[in-house]
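F.,

This is the one I mentioned.
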């Protein structure tokens, strides 16, 4: 799993990926909230460009309340998730119970259930804080971006929330190969 650090982030073209075709739900049509046990899944959903709220401190009632308020699908493996939560709250919640214990099966489950688009929105969202990325021109890049990278790359993107800079890199291509293996044509 690739977790970018400050000043060493990246972005990619969907070079390797092939879509299944057919009707797909784009990131404007479905949003997620993953419980604290599914942080890796959340990162990979963000890599696909989908909005997935997640964090070690986001779980239980606060997660459900946020998901309901923001109309997000709750992703969890916990069959007893309902626990002591109020029935009125649960009735308003959309909960998708995953069967898989780990990636990549979990990602396939979500991609299949929600007909996610596997290529069109790759790397359009910050993997760290879930915010959309925006193009940034070279003259506006912060000093933290190495000169070699500036010389090599033409296109950069920035997360306006955490200010991380993304560009294309070999680790992105590796991630795309993994996605192609996991979600590629059956
Ligand atoms: Zn960010």
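My design for it:
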């Amino acid at each position: 799993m690739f977790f970018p650090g400050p000043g060493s982030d990246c972005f990619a073209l969907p070079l390797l990926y092939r879509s299944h075709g057919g009707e797909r739900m784009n990131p404007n049509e479905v949003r997620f909230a993953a419980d604290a046990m599914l942080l890796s899944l959340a990162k990979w959903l963000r890599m696909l460009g989908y909005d997935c709220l997640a964090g070690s401190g986001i779980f239980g009632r606060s997660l459900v309340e946020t998901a309901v308020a923001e109309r997000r699908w709750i992703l969890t493996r916990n069959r007893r998730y309902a626990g002591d939560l109020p029935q009125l709250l649960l009735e308003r919640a959309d909960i998708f119970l995953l069967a898989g214990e780990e990636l990549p099966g979990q990602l396939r489950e979500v991609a299949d259930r929600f007909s996610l688009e596997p290529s069109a929105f790759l790397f359009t969202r910050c993997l760290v804080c879930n915010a959309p990325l925006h193009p940034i021109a070279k003259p506006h890049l912060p000093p933290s971006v190495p000169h070699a990278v500036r010389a090599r790359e033409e296109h950069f993107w920035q997360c306006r929330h955490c200010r991380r800079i993304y560009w294309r890199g070999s680790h992105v291509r590796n991630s795309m190969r993994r996605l192609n293996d996991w979600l590629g044509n059956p």
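The longest helix spans residues 170-183.

Talk soon.
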